[in-house]
Amino acid sequence: MKKFIALLMIITVVFVQPLAVFAEDTAVGTQKNVEALVKDIIEEMLNQGKEDQQVAKLVDEINQSVVAIIGRNKSYREQDYVYSKMPSNLQHGSGVVITSNGQIITNNHVVKDMEEIYVVMYDGKAYSAQLLYNDEEIDLALIKINRSELKPVELETADNVKVGNTVIAIGTPLYFGYRNSASKGIISGLNRPVDQTYTYLQTDASINPGNSGGPLINMSGKLVGINTLGYMFYSGMNFAIPVENVSYFLDHYNQFGRIRRCYTGIQFEENWAAMLGIPTDQGLRVVTLREDAVVTSDQLQEGDILEAIDGVKTSSIAAYNEILKRHLPGNQVTLTFSRDNEDFDIKVTLKERY
Amino acid sequence: MKYKRLCIILVACLLVFTASIPSYALALKDDGTIDLYEVFSNKKDRMKTEVGSRIFKWSMHLPDDAIVYKSDKVNYFNMYTESYRSSVSLEVIKNEQKYTLEDILYSKQMNNPDSYYWYFSQKEFTFNIEQDAQGEKYIRIVKMDPFYDYYLVDDAAEEFSSYIENRIYIKNDYIYNLEISMEGKYYRENPEMFRKLVSSLILDYDENNPYLKELSDSVSEHRDYENTSYGWRITVNPYWKEEGISNARVQHFTAVYSHEEIYGSDESDNEKEADFNNYQSFREGITVSLVSSALPTETSEDWAQEEIEKLQQNYNDKVYEVLISEKMNLGNMDAYRVKVKYNTVPKNPYIVDTLYVIGNGYKYSVVANIPVKKYNEAKTREAFETMLKSFKLTNQRSKYLGKILDPTSLINWNDSKEIKTKKYNFNANLTKNWHTYDSFYSGGYGYYDDYYYYDTYYYSGMSNQESVSAYQKDNNMNLMMMAGFDTRNFDDIIKNYVQALLETDEVRIGLANIEVSSATVGTVNIYRIITEYDLDAINQFAKADETKSYDYNSISNQYTYAVKIGNDLYTQTVTIPLANTTDHTKNEMQQVWENTQIVGVNYNQRITNWNKHNNSKFQDTQQDFLLEDFSSFEELAKLIY
Predict the structure, then answer these.
(1) Sheet of strand B86-94, all strands in order from the earlier edge strand to the far edge
(2) Residues of A in contact with B70 (CB under 8 A)
(3) Keyword set for this entry (chain A) (predicted)?
(4) Chain A neighbors of B41, CB-CB under 8 A
(5) Which of the four, A205, A245, B463, B615, has the lowest number of CB atoms within 10 Å?
(6) How far apart are CA B70 and CA B65, in angstroms?
(7) What is the DSSP annotation of B213-234?
């Protein structure tokens, strides 16, 4: 029995020792630390509460500018082996009001094949819409409904769009009954060459089929992009047409009634590294010249490399288009090419592509 | 001057007023109260609440959210409705055996489920004959899917299993098998919804019911079909439809329903007769093809005459009859019509009515294939003729449509072409009329081309075999040259082979003749074995016995030459379908042998005399030979079908 009591005491002493050390540490340190920690937590919670309120307020305000768009897709052939009273060719997307008199911007792919376009507002009212202008390459369309005193969304200036900004996507994902669904995320990247046309803004805010054409809004309630596409079966890899491209589209429409797109008539081939997104100094390889190209075959030949436009280096077709976007037909630019490691400049007047 | 100004002001006002109409109209309807259900609903079908088939005489409830999948004839119908959590299927089949409900009940009950895997079987709880609200008797089967019992314990399986009910009716000379499967939980909470669906089946079609959707109505009237890729248009008959993809280069149209199904069984005698002689060697319907580009000087008449010449060369004149050969007046198209009756299957002759059209720089053929039995029905014949004559050329063509060369005009068919075996010194000099099996295109399976196109046939009784073959397109002649190692005595080989031929029924009763001849060149023996059918005799034989029917495209006359040098056996066989046996094709066959060399020797040139053998010497009284003996260098089955 004595042996057992002795053993028990030894064990007790051994196990109580660390407690003392731990107790000492808390006791010494640190009443102040605990207080600071609690203060931080409370502050964080208060901030979180404020942010929640801010997001809720923002979504509520922006929702009034967000619309759902629906129509029949006229490009599908009806199949005789299927019959339903439910129309099989309905397609829907989203849009955002940009003028108080009913102009709405959306993706071109939302409305392109629609027989007739219908817009459903936040308040559930449905309107027939008129297609004012659409451009397949930039994938934007401008439609109009016959309703005034709408609340338009304000466009953010491109300089204020930064990676890491909190953004909210609002739209009609998957099912028309899910109109004005909001999701939150951040701007994950800028100038992403998703396809060969223009660059996109990358976000991890949830975007699903049906969100197309809907707005991506920053915490100031301003439009930073039009939600356009995303990778299926991956998470958080979504893309929006950046606000500078939206402005470009609208400015050209307002000034000229269409996008006046610049054209050189030179056909390029991208190098494989650019296609894989690997940083490279390699330019664009000239493949052929169209008949109405701004250069002649005496000046340029197959295999020449376009290194820069007005001194701005370019290695992808999307980047090339982005540079041309800053110009108007009739502008003069200097194209820098290389042949056999020798650079040479050609000054050209840009034409318009119809 | 004053009036002029007034006029201008009036016109301007009118223009302003007219221009404001669309925006006013838009404003009127655009107050945000558009009902999208109204907008997107099919105006014609908006009020439909029932669905059915006029042809098969049934109708049932159509929920507003139902999605229906149907067969062309609508004899198979499958419907899913989310609002009833149910799938509905209805199969309608002809009650040819005149079954009763009791017969079907017995058959269903006696089907031994032990013979199936568990997941094919079902758990039946009710198997009864009952009567519905309309007084129709039916077999009622209530069952559950055994799937749930596999995964779930007893109570859970009972809870989740779908409720399935079959109702089998016999009416209108059809067997109707309705099956409705409703989600188990939903059924237990809403049994009346199930009853609504299941009791809505009526075995009748009310033509006056405006709420009833006829599932074939998309094809029930004349429709214009336009092929916008190849620039033509045709008016499709009611209850006909196109097969396969639209805008195809070769577009086939066919009737969805039989004459009896559309018009009833007033001509049932014809139909019954067709039941056991319904073999068709052709594809019934109308086929429109863009054949090739046309030369500037080509006319439809020249083209049609060429085709008639080809027919005369390659078809026995007893198996066809040219009924019409005339220039057609179809708008401003250059068209020529040739109508031919084929008796290649005497019990089921058919008409091939072809419109040769040249226009838009292309050659188009519109071909109607009709069994004579149907051609004799006035309504069916009219349907074919109306559709054929409705063919028109349009200017709506694909921008990619370019020149399509006719390859037949690029090749000199009389140029020589050699075929030979690789290991054995055995070759024949043919013309380009003989095609060999293409080895330059593997159908996308380039890695396996050796495997797919290895031109070898295997026969027992022979080893180290090698063979080559060729065929002609317009007359289906086939050539097979084979060499191999065979140590048997040559006479025995021939005896066994001929003996088997003599044993075939058609030879025994004199419908086919076997002629065996031999010749000797030095030490080499050569046999010639000819099997020829007597077309007149077969016609008479089949005419006298309704149960016998022959297809002259499938019966082939056969011309075999066999040579044995040492232990190597060389055979050459040309088969010509009986329908295609003409002086021209027999001459083509003869040319093959005359231009054949075996081990460098053209034996035909050295043969001075053929000795004809009496067939009785090949007839053995002992019937103890083995099958392998006569299948050693030719498949006997090829002789008949």
Answers:
(1) A82-84, B67-70, B76-81, B86-94, B174-182, B163-171, B137-144, B123-131
(2) 81-83
(3) Hydrolase, Protease, Signal
(4) 85, 87
(5) B463
(6) 16
(7) EETTGGGSS-EEEEETTEEEEE
Residue of A nearest to B45 (CA): A85
Flag if A118 and B36 touch (Cβ within 8 Å).
yes
Q: Is A46 on the interface with B (CB under 8 A)?
A: no
What is the distance in angstroms between the Cα of B74 and the nearest Cα belonging to chain A?
A: 9
pLDDT at B14: 54
The answer to whether the Cβ–Cβ distance between B68 and A130 falls below 8 Å is: no
Of B27, B39, B62, the CB nearest to A118: B39
Amino acid (one-letter) located at B160: F
pLDDT at B4 over 80: no
Q: In order of start, what are the domains of chain A with their CATH numbers?
A: 154-256 (2.40.10.10), 261-353 (2.30.42.10)
How confident is the model over B635-641, as a mean pLDDT? 38
pLDDT, tens only, B67-86: 999 998 889 999 999 999 99
Q: Is A75 on the interface with B (CB under 8 A)?
A: no
Q: Chain A residues with CB inside 8 Å of B219's CB?
A: 80
Paired tokens of B286 = 């109308």
Q: Where are the alpha helices (DSSP H) in B30-135?
A: 36-40, 101-110
Which of 90-129 (A) contact B at CB < 8 A? 90, 116, 118, 120-121, 123, 125-128
Q: How confident is the model at residue B112 (pLDDT cuts 50, 70, 90)?
A: low
Query: Which residues of chain A does B40 touch, with a Cβ-Cβ cutoff of 8 Å?
Result: 72, 87, 90
Q: Where in chain B is the domain with CATH 3.40.1000.10?
A: 50-214, 221-397, 416-639
pLDDT tens across B424-456, in order? 999 999 999 999 875 544 444 444 444 444 444
SS (H, E, C) B529-583: EEEEECHHHHHHHHHHCCCCCCCCCCCEEEEEEEEEECCEEEEEEEEEEHHHCCH
Asked if B436 and B449 count as a contact pair (C-beta separation under 8 A), the reply is: no
Cα dihedral value B215, B220, B224, B226, nearest 10? 40
* Known catalytic membership, residue A139: yes
Tokens of B168: 């089998």
Closest Cα in chain B, distance from residue A306 (Å): 33
Note whether A155 and A223 are within 8 A (CB). yes
CB atoms within 10 A of CB A143: 25
Mean pLDDT of B268-285: 59
Counting one residue from chain A and one from chain B, the pairs whose CB atoms sit within 8 A come to 70
pLDDT of residue A14: 44
Residues of A in contact with B236 (CB under 8 A): none
pLDDT digits (tens, 9 = 90+) for A149-186: 999 999 999 999 999 999 999 999 999 999 999 999 99
Which of B36, B81, B87 would you mutate first to test chain A, the one with the most A CBs within 10 A? B36
Confidence class for position B150, pLDDT limits 50, 70, 90: confident
* The predicted structure's pLDDT at residue B12: 53
Using one digit for the tens of pLDDT, what is the confidence trace for B473-488? 999 999 999 999 999 9
Q: What is the ipTM of this complex?
A: 0.80
Res A248 pLDDT > 80: yes
Whole-number Å distance between alpha carbons of B268 and B264? 9
What does the pLDDT look like over B617-634, one tens digit per residue? Answer: 887 655 444 444 444 444
Q: Is A281 a catalytic residue?
A: no
Is A212 considered catalytic here? yes
Angle in degrees, CA B504, B490, B575, rounded to 5: 45
Which of these is catalytic: A183, A212, A315, A316?
A: A212
Overall average pLDDT of the B22-45 stretch: 75
CATH number of B416-639: 3.40.1000.10
Q: Measure A16 CA to nearest chain B CA, in Å.
A: 53
Hey, which CATH number is domain B50-214, 3.55.10.10, 3.40.470.10, 3.20.20.80, 3.40.1000.10? 3.40.1000.10
Average pLDDT score over residue span B201-207 = 95
